[in-house]
Amino acid sequence: MTPTDRPESVDRDIAAQLCDHVADADATGTRLRIAGGGTKAFYGRPVAAATLDVTPHRGVTHYDPVELVVSVRAGTPLAELERTLAAEGQHLPFEPPHFGTAATVGGMVATGLSGPRRPWSGAVRDFVLGTRLISHRGRELRFGGEVMKNVAGYDLSRLMTGAQGTLGVITEVSMKVLPLPAAAHSLRLALPLQNAMAKLAKWGRQPVPLTAAAWHDGVLYLRLEGGRRSVAASRARLGGEDLDPAFWQNLREHRLAFFDPADPRPLWRLSLPQRTAPLEPEGDWFYDWGGAQRWLRSSADARGIRDAAARAGGHATCYTPGAADPFHPLASALAKYHRQLKAQLDPRGIFNPGRLYPDL
């Protein structure tokens, strides 16, 4: 498929200009705030630095529907990529959230956020085959994909996923994609939390084609996807009421009433082992990923929420814009590793300084 065959495609390569900008910044010690569409700017600490706008660097550079592989520049609108894949009956199975029409592919990889299907399909990093990135010296390097090359023992393509631009500037990413499911059906069942979790544990040991499971306020929400016969049989077996499939899109984009930005209570995301018992912090809980991801609206003390998550073997992130320290504090050994990695890949600290933690 060529660029002109793609719906609403725009092809523009400004890698050379971006490289020059980064090289100048490294030479002068100028810090850079790597900017895309800005729809996930709330996710992390604010960066006070000169802006490096990656959005003009866009276009699908290679797409082979038969091989299920696509390569796309970082500034490409995420919606444009999804339309291109949908035209061939394919999709990004990890359901990345947009949080706005300006979302880009680079922002998707940099934040590493996944939607409701994540426990059943995998995370963003599981589908990244390779990347092109600009190093602190202003050189565009290629990792993974057809080249399958690492530097200093690091798998750079995976390290860049979720690094929030603190290790380099992503210019292009190659990903595996998958066919859209042949059939899908969504259900809702009125169940208390304990019964809902017990049923999910039971269904997890059976051939039930679940690809999303959430619980809130006495209702279990399910999505079945796969072959038509399998979906139809499971729908009849599980019972419940039909659910508008738009529920999952609204969950993915935080458009459900639970995520109302007018709610004055901070919004927390807790990542936990799936079968973790209900935690102590008081507030309004929304269970996603079959219980492995839990959203909490609460005015409880931040340290208490994070301590409860840590005792359960997980971590807690504050999603409320403007949070001073949104991410869970790193253990000392892990923090040391992160500092060493930052020093190796960005010795002058020019890339998104302080985005994750004050000293990274």
UniProtKB/TrEMBL annotation:
InterPro entries the UniProt entry points to: FAD-bd_PCMH, FAD-bd_PCMH-like_sf, FAD-bd_PCMH_sub2, FAD-linked_Oxase-like_C, Oxid_FAD_bind_N
GO MF annotation list: catalytic activity; FAD binding
Keywords from the named record: FAD, Flavoprotein
Record-annotated FAD-binding PCMH-type domain positions: 2-180
UniProt-recorded name of the protein: FAD-binding protein
Organism whose genome encodes this protein: Thioalkalivibrio paradoxus ARh 1
